[in-house]
Amino acid sequence: MTYQTIIVETAEGGVGVIRMNRPKALNALNGQITDEIFTAMEAFDADENIGCIVLTGSDRVFAAGADIKQMADSSATDMMLGDDFTDWSRMSRINKPIIAAVSGYALGGGCEIAMMCDMIVASETAQFGQPEINLGILPGAGGTQRLTRAVGKAIAMEMCLADRRLNAEEAARYGLVNHVFPVERYMDETLALARKVAGMSQVAARLTKEAINQSFELSLNDGLNYEKKNFYLLFGTEDRQEGMNAFIEKRKPTWKNR
Ligand code: CAA
Question: Does the predicted model carry a pTM greater than 0.90?
Answer without folding.
Answer: yes
